[in-house]
């Protein structure tokens, strides 16, 4: 996550120095706490929050839980993780819905914090969960705020109640109250009221917001805060809390390149939980806020649970089973490949999903260089093919590949590379689907390949070797051929049952000496 990028790097560097120490002294702990304090202050976290945070970390790091730990460095990381979860609000807090619909949600915040866009994101999020939200345009001061909400509502697929044109015309309190009544009549179970913001905290804005709250009696008042405005966010949050009060916080613009201290400060300073976070410009870039998962992201420990949830929401389980069957029966085509890619794109930004993996901070450069448009180019190539060509790549001769390249705006080389990669991937996936071990290009056969891999070749080689001697010496060749015919090892003594040194041989299994051998033995003994 871009907002916490610098803080994550600083903390990761601090913990790296601890891993070389078998036991932590008081000086080691003090040095670590000092570096954590600097990293948090550089990230624009509130000074009071930093003091409280570092005091708790130092106290626990000097306690018995670290001294008795097998790996003190990992224990300190766990302590920092626990304290981060605490200042981010502890447990996840969900929206509180009214017992008698509609549930009224009022959005408040400064102008430019992203309230209007966030209203559409929240509405779309609730619609996915089975609710029927409606947006109410009560921001009648900002130029074209009503039009913007109507556009956002259309993109989210939810209705917008906007009886007034805005641009300074109309009474926001009356619109908000009428919106709740309209939602009740139209049987919408959620009403989201978009209120006006100001460039700064002033008495007029506070009075208007307080009047809307009194008129609509909302179940939730969400304070939308820009994660990029730093320390001023905490001051603004305190002013809103005193003037209007709010039940929860929504962080916007978490994908920005700001230092992110507001996110780590606002929950601790106001005592109100962070409920949602906006992580991008698209309406789908919106997620419930989990303090434990956010702490893991900051410490570069990954966020596997969110990654799994995004994948589950995007991928169709029945479709996945059909694809698995096609792989096992060699029926997987470019048509199926295209469908899988489109599902992957539907899960969201691939770069963001890769960033949720543990240790992604160490791949920052690779993630920055990752071009998501490559998937769009691949889709263009496949979509430029005919249905028959997608089902059977063997039809793709030179003229067809040239036509496909021109249709996709790519080169023939790009088409050739795609077909080659697809065929290799299909072959590997078919091997996996049948329970085998795939052979990765550039590597030898993997262990456990069984008779499918080198086993057959080795057996054939052994049989070929056992078919007859290839020695250039006629006498030696005759001796070895005789040994092969008798089942004895070539160039050795007759085969005996049992293990080395005669151990484990069955009684009576030893070979019977010949008369010639007995004569030689008697001569050797001087008889």
| Physical arrangement of strands within the biggest beta sheet | 3-2-4-1-5-6-7-8
Proportion of strand residues: 5-15%
Report the average pLDDT across residues. 74
**Tally of structural domains:** 3
Low-confidence stretches: 440-466, 493-510
Largest sheet: 8 strands, mixed
Instruction: Give the end-to-end Cα distance, rounded to a whole number of Å.
Output: 94 Å
* CATH architecture designation of the largest domain: Orthogonal Bundle
- Our Rg estimate from Cα atoms comes to 36 Å
What does this structure look like?
With 527 residues, the protein is an alpha/beta fold. The chain has three domains: 7-91, Up-down Bundle (Four Helix Bundle (Hemerythrin (Met), subunit A)), CATH 1.20.120; 103-289, P-loop containing nucleotide triphosphate hydrolases (Rossmann fold), CATH 3.40.50; 316-524, Signal recognition particle, SRP54 subunit, M-domain (434 Repressor (Amino-terminal Domain)). It is built from 24 helices and eight strands. Strand 6, helix 11 (261-270) and strand 7 form a beta-alpha-beta unit.
